[in-house]
Each structure stands twice: as C-alpha cells, then as structure tokens.
Amino acid sequence: MKFTKMHGAGNDYVFVDGTNIIADWSEVASRVSDRHFGIGSDGLIVAVNSTSADIRMRMWNADGSESEMCGNGIRCFAKFVVEKNIISVSSNLLHVETGAGILPVTLINQKGKVLRAKVEMGIPSLRSDEIPINKKALQPNDYAFLDESLIDGMGIDRESLVFDAGITLEHQIYKLTGVSTGNPHVTCFLDTPVNDFSLDIIGPLVEYHEAFPNRVNFHIVNVIDRKRVRTRTWERGSGQTLACATGATAIVVAARLHNFVDNAVIVEVPGGELIINWDGRGSALMEGPIAEVFSGDFPLE
Prior knowledge:
The protein has about 300 residues and is α+β, with helices and mostly antiparallel strands.
C-alpha cells in the first residue's frame, strides 16, 4: 500500500488512495498510526470515489474508530488528491464529500507550492441533540456570559444549548460549552494557563463520560484577547494532538457565544496557528498550513 504522511499544524495523518483498494481500514488505521511499530500518526485518511462531489474523504482515528470529519486532515487531503493526480480539477477549488457533508476547499499556492488551504466548515450546530450531548448527565447551564443577541439572531432557544454546563471530575467542576462542527466538541475556558492543566487525566474522563453518546473532543482554552486564543486538545480516539481544526472552529464559536472574541480569531495550538472566521450566523471559514512529510510503502497484511 502506497502512502503519504502529511500534517496540518502538527496534526499528522497517513493518506492513502483507496479508490481501487479494498481493505479493513479500521485495522489498517490502528497499525499505521502506531508510533513505535507503524508509520506514526493521529490517524488514517483514505480517498475514495464520490458520486456527489469531486472526491470522498474517509477518516479513522488512531484507535481505529471512524470519525465524520477532520479539519486539518481535509486541508492536507485536498493537496494530496490534487498533487498525486487522484482527481483532476480546473481550479484550486474542490468539493470534498465527508461524513459532515460536502465541504468546499480552496488550495492556496505560495511560490508555486500548495502550503495552505481554506475550508468552508458549514454552519455550526449548537443544539444539544444535534451535537449530540445528553444534557441530563450534566449540571444545569450557567447563562451568565451568554450573548443572547447572537443566539436570537440564529433563531436558537438558549434552553437547547449546552452552555457552561457543569461536569464534576476528580473533585473539580468544569464548565463545558458544546458545539458540533461535523464532530462533537466541548470547550472549557480557563483562568489558569492551559499548559498547567492535567489534560492526560481529565481528557479521557470527558471523552468517555455518559453525557456524550458518540464520545467527544475536549478543548481547554485561554482567551488572550478578542483576536487570539490559546488551546490544548484531547481528541476523541487519538488522545492529545498538536492541533484540531474542527475543534478550533468550535472553540471560536463557543468564545463568540460568550462574547469573548470578534469574528476573526487566531487559534494558537501546540503545533502552530489556525485562522477561524465566523460571522455568528453562517458558515465558518477555517484556514491553516499544510505540509508533506514523506511517502513510502506499507504492507496491508
């Protein structure tokens, strides 16, 4: 099996042209992702044919579970399918079918090379049943910081939100705000530095909590100012990752719900920076870097 390893802000994946390959991709994902006995990655992304878009992206986490979408992965995926001649497009815009719908991706060329991409992430889902989150397993919402005008403009009842809802873990209460950007996310805003947080302990407790029927991605965030935030992520199925772009988008949405930030925000992740734009109503726009690491062959058996 020929593969290419790529990363977006340190969030690394193995990419495979699966248009003519039949395999147990869940099992392959677990093997290739192993950083000691495999290639080493946060997961596996496979290109398959689509009947409704230019190409279809399927994505598996490092533990073999399949996810709906990956924001860093889709940027790299677009570069992969174009530069490896898996598809032919007449412009830098292509439409990618994902588990979260068909998403437009614009490749950005710098000095003749594709180094960045922009992705239309779609309209964020804020209702608890759409994320999904079982609100009964959490403490009641705390609306003290809620920007009521924003949700009024979206036509959303605040009772349908998960907004600063409490969860008690290791004798500590954390306030979570839920957003779906194709994948389920919860964000916790901290007054203490994110680098001091015991993410390796609290992360898996949140991911597997009964409130999240499909598990969840967990983000801790420091608001630096109205144009910049800093975050660390516990990613569903992969653990701590250097970046999560669907998560960065969800973080900005959650921050806007709190009126902490403006429309355009730089999200500092351990692996670099992502740029998120959201006007409070329509589709969110995510931009970030792309880098190819190396290519090679990996045995399917």
